[in-house]
Amino acid sequence: MGTKERRQRQFAEREQLFLEHARELIRESGLLNLQMSRLAEKCEYAVGTLYQHFASKEDLLLALTTAQAQEHTELFRRVAEWKTLSRERMFAIGVADKIFVQRNPDHFRISQYALCEVVWRAASPDRREDFLAVCQPIGRCVASIVEDGVRDGDLELNGVTVQELCTGLWALCNGTHNLVHTEGVLEDFAVRDAYRVMCQHIQVMLNGFGWKPLADPTDTQAMHRLIQRIKNEVFHDFCCEN
Amino acid sequence: MGTKERRQRQFAEREQLFLEHARELIRESGLLNLQMSRLAEKCEYAVGTLYQHFASKEDLLLALTTAQAQEHTELFRRVAEWKTLSRERMFAIGVADKIFVQRNPDHFRISQYALCEVVWRAASPDRREDFLAVCQPIGRCVASIVEDGVRDGDLELNGVTVQELCTGLWALCNGTHNLVHTEGVLEDFAVRDAYRVMCQHIQVMLNGFGWKPLADPTDTQAMHRLIQRIKNEVFHDFCCEN
DNA sequence: CAAGGAAAATGAAGATGGTTCAAAATTCGG
DNA sequence: CCGAATTTTGAACCATCTTCATTTTCCTTG
Q1: CATH assignment of B3-53?
Q2: Is the pLDDT of residue A159 over 80?
């Protein structure tokens, strides 16, 4: 009875198709103008079929976000498996974030919207659960690096929990994305390359935590060399250029 | 010809009324369920009148955000005028943020939504400009503290610009708000009091920048004393309790 | 291979809620 | 007190999301 499996596979494929085209539509004409009927038409299906996959438009948006979070997770997993000093590994998490956002320029706009109360609440519970499940490994990757740092004697927690430490870096990265994607905010504030700055701030914060070996804050060359090294050793297939 | 002025004043008052009631409706039944017609009814005006103030629903939401950003600015201005060590003043910015968010629990949810591409673009250009204008002093307050730190010899920039340094702390605060207000994210991550953690992270970051006098990261008592002192000396009238 | 029925796809109709605008009401100067 | 100018009104309009009765497709069975 392979019929059922085939059906399921085709169904999953079609879901990918919808997501793919949705992303394309958003790229072309903005999140604002995404319309369910247009999307269905573009995919050559009826609206009703689209609604067999997604309980609502919001549900679709959260599904989009989840799909991209999956790729995000993949980058982090690589970092966690990288064999090097714990401090460098932690810094590489920031670089992974930077690379991810640059490769998926639309992702943050979509997820920013999809994770707002309004959209989040309107998505189906299943979809929300999915999203949280996909994000979980991210937290675990980062936490494991912190634990390694402590085990290797590079870092002392001083009463801070592993999760709390992670939250700081997470907030820093997340906040940077947020500022970057809020039109008019950083432009007016004369910050040129926000992601380079983010990397510097990660170094500052890791220094603040006393995570050894400390980085020399005046040596931007060293930071760029490290970023290059990370790109070569960990993400060689993700960023040929730059 | 005082007629014109009176009209304008009444118009402005009515706008406040609309904003007030909108906030109330959101508090009662969520951003998701805010309806223009309901809002008009609650205010005992016709929908058309509401639309004389706000070009669209999105415009209203951005106006709400702007109004609250004004109060936010006020808190920051106080901090900037506080006479004390530059490092303490900078830390107080974080405390101001914490107080503001706790006093305005809905603000972040609304602004998070209003500043998303979708809503931002749908608001009127005037409204967007207003928002940016209101936010500008925030940046200036923070920047002035950094400049004071440098002048007083408490801080060396080491090639980082003032704006870049500010961006780091801003991102940290903003990111924390974001994580706190994204349902299910921090809960699963076992972070209890995210804003206490945020304050710790600010200290870590300021230490990382080498901003003197350095804080002892193991001494949480000292941090709480400082927070209390800030509440007493700067925000006495804002937070009687806690 | 035809029949029957389960499963899936369809898209027109329905529902919702934002927005407009012609008409009614109000205000104000003369 | 009049009539023009301004403001308010809310029913009608319209854009989209969503549903669901009908049609089509697909598969099993006799």
Answers
A1: 1.10.10.60
A2: yes
